[in-house]
Amino acid sequence: xxxIQYERVGAxxxxxxxxxxxxxxxxxxxxxxxxxxxxxxxxYLILKNVDLSQSGQYSCYEGSSWxxxxxTYLRVGTPPKEPVLMCRSNNYxxxxxxxxxxxxxxxxxxxxxxxxxxxxxxxxCEKDAVxxxxxxxxxxxxxSTVKYKVTLTVTNxxxxxxxxxxxxxxxxxxxxxPESVVAKPVPNNPRRLEVSWQNPSSWPDPESFPxxxxxxxxxxxxxxxxHV
Length: 228
Fold this sequence. Notes:
With 228 residues, the protein is an all-beta fold. The protein has three domains: 3-77, Immunoglobulin-like; 84-172, Immunoglobulin-like (Sandwich), CATH 2.60.40; 177-227, no CATH class. Helices cover 0% and strands 48% of the residues. The strands form six sheets. A five-stranded mixed β-sheet has the order 1-8-7-3-4, with no helix packed on it. Strands 9-10-14-13 form a four-stranded antiparallel β-sheet, with no helix packed on it. The relative contact order is 0.14. Residues 10-60 form the Ig-like domain.
């Protein structure tokens, strides 16, 4: 037999040697290294207050013959904490994307499920290949006053958690920064700079939805910013 066994950090773990009797003579190894008999209760292996370093492959052998009777891969980790979810439209009016991450690692595999509801309608969130923790939603109608509700659920072998965002369409519109920003001196005027830039390439329709730009500058020796 070969298994994967998930346990929480700090838990007491008992491993049985497959179908062997409790009083059978056995030997246990962890990642190929013999485990001291003080950790045995009969043929059971007892691990107290496990930590991350004890993750690994545990094997149980019949005492005299050293026949492998049982094997398990112990994965020590934690249940997921409430995930961090962010939704943003950087290509309005095409749609928006949502991205997520966990505030702390769990050290074991996690799966994420995201649901998007617009009023009473379920919407498809198309997952990106890279980065994997992001998906896109296409706007069904412009200037909608119906709120969006996004729920993200994270699950692993030790537990689950979720978070929910509710927002209006306009509340998450945030363009990407301007591109190709260039500053160059103005000929024959040493106190002036000419600064040029382009719209972010992700912004699809700058004519219908023009962007406003703000520029600030300061000499390195000063703390105060000047705004344009």
